[in-house]
């Protein structure tokens, strides 16, 4: 371990060794000012190893299915039959299932066309009198239940499909070269009565490295690209991309302001996607102000019954992390202004970027997945674990003539940080954002 040659023997502080000691980190890094999406996940212990570069999960779809009418049924009085056709790509029903229209009127499926798999045609018997105007091409129908005669055989139920979500780790690298003069610019901290030092240029490099990872997990596009030599570069998919792909992106009704109705709209969207009862909201400064201004006087905003499951039941932890908690439209929300969304050199350099107008809705808790994993966190980071158990989440290499073990004759200390990690989102349809759209 390298040591200071001054009178007081201060221990060199490696970024890898102190990363899990948040008390030291707060003394060394300006956490409050530069706190990122990655920091929030780290606080909550949302990082797990991956044995492969790409990882995926499978989530069950609903056991129920809706369909879209392809024809204009002629209608039928109660007890009479009519022919119905739905899209060939839709899931067709089983005999005995009860079909319900948007008006609430119902009919029971009595027979499937021999070519139902290709033409989507089947016969129903009206339970209610169904007028021609009750069911038209383009209307959505649902199958809510089933009914059969005494002693009849049962039909095979419709199987739910699995939705696959895949992402990959990304290799992040940051290097800085510290000269013998620059190495004299140290940050000295004390932790549990012991003196430590941390080179300022190293501090800047490590902070930049962590923020690069954080912004990759926020805005990464996923997939891969190539370098100048045609070598593959894997890209992790970020939270913003996950949400935009699922069309859970809601603009406020009146650009530039947030109203109770906007929260109602996104709440209903989350209801329909089977979202849980507790959410985190990570917001940019503009929309955070708009939420406070538009909702602060609303009665639901001031109601009780707040849950803190996202913080292991601890209100104190939520407050310590800078979250403001409230209950609205049957859900608990923990809102936090995320400094990373207001960075004037990255997300908000000019007004046209407007990333400070996004509020990301992140569901709490775990979700059941198929293929034997049980329940996993809805959002977490994944880092590559090597065959010998070595973690690649944060690796620090010290090179050059000033390194603890010198590797050259130059009077420099080269610090290289490497991370091989990515974001994992389970059930992205339960995530969303509210955009100020000013």
Explained architecture:
The protein is an alpha+beta fold. It folds into two domains: 1-62 and 162-438, phage-related protein like fold; 66-159, Thrombin, subunit H. 19% of the residues lie in helices and 33% in strands. It has ten helices and 26 strands. It has helices spanning 15-18, 22-28, 31-34, 37-43, 116-119, 200-219, 239-245, 260-272, 285-295, 315-320; strands at 11-12, 47-50, 54-60, 66-68, 81-85, 97-100, 106-112, 121-126, 140-146, 162-168, 170-179, 186-191, 194-199, 224-226, 232-234, 249-251, 278-283, 324-328, 331-337, 358-363, 366-369, 374-377, 379-384, 395-399, 412-425, 432-435. The strands form seven sheets. The protein has a six-stranded antiparallel beta sheet. A hairpin with a 4-residue loop joins β21 and β22. It is elongated, with a radius of gyration of 28 Å.
**Proportion of β residues?**
25-35%
**Which CATH first-tier class of the largest domain would you pick?**
Alpha Beta
Through-space gap between termini: 53 Å
Using only C-alpha atoms, the radius of gyration works out to: 28 Å
Tell me the number of helical segments per DSSP (H or I, 4 or more residues long): 10
Percent of residues in helices: 10-25%
> How is the main sheet built?
6 strands, antiparallel
Poorly predicted regions are: 1-8
Q: What is the overall pLDDT average?
A: 81
């Amino acid at each position: 371990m390298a040591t200071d040659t001054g009178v007081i023997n201060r221990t060199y502080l490696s970024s890898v060794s102190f990363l899990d000691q948040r008390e030291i980190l707060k003394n060394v890094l300006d956490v409050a000012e530069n706190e990122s999406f990655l920091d929030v996940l780290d606080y909550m212990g949302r990082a797990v190893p991956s044995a492969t570069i790409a990882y995926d999960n499978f989530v069950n779809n609903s056991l129920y299915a809706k369909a879209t009418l392809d024809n204009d049924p002629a209608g039928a009085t109660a007890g009479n039959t009519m022919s119905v056709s739905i899209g060939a790509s839709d899931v067709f029903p089983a005999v005995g299932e009860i079909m319900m229209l948007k008006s609430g009127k119902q009919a029971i499926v009595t027979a499937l066309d021999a070519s139902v798999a290709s033409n989507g045609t089947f016969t129903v018997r009206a339970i209610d009198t169904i007028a021609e105007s009750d069911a038209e091409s383009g209307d959505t129908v649902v199958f809510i239940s089933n009914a059969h005669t005494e002693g009849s055989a049962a039909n095979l139920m419709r199987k739910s499909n699995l939705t696959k979500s895949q992402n990959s780790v990304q290799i992040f690298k940051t290097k800085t070269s510290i000269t013998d003069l620059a190495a004299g610019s140290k940050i000295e901290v004390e932790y549990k009565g012991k003196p430590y030092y941390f080179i300022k240029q190293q501090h800047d490099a490590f902070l930049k490295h962590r923020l690069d990872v954080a912004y990759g997990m926020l805005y990464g596009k996923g997939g891969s690209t190539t370098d100048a030599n045609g070598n593959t570069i894997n890209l992790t998919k970020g939270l913003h991309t996950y949400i935009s792909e699922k069309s859970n992106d809601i603009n406020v009704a009146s650009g530039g302001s947030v109203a109770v109705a906007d929260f109602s709209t996104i709440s209903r969207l989350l209801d329909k996607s089977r979202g849980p009862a507790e959410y985190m909201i990570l917001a940019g400064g503009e929309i955070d102000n708009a939420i406070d201004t538009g909702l602060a006087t609303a009665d639901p905003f001031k109601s009780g019954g707040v849950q803190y499951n996202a913080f292991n039941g601890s209100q104190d932890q939520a407050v310590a992390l800078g979250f403001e908690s409230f209950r609205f439209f049957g859900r608990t929300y923990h809102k936090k202004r995320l400094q990373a969304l207001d960075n004037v050199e990255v997300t908000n350099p000019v007004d046209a970027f407007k990333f400070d107008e996004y509020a990301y809705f992140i569901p709490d808790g775990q979700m059941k997945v198929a293929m034997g994993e049980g329940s996993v966190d809805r959002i977490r980071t994944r880092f590559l674990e090597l065959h010998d158990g070595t973690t690649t989440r944060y690796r620090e290499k010290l090179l050059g003539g000033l390194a603890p073990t010198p590797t050259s004759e130059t009077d420099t200390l080269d610090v290289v940080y490497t991370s091989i990690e990515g974001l994992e989102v389970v059930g992205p349809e339960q995530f969303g954002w509210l955009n100020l759209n000013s």
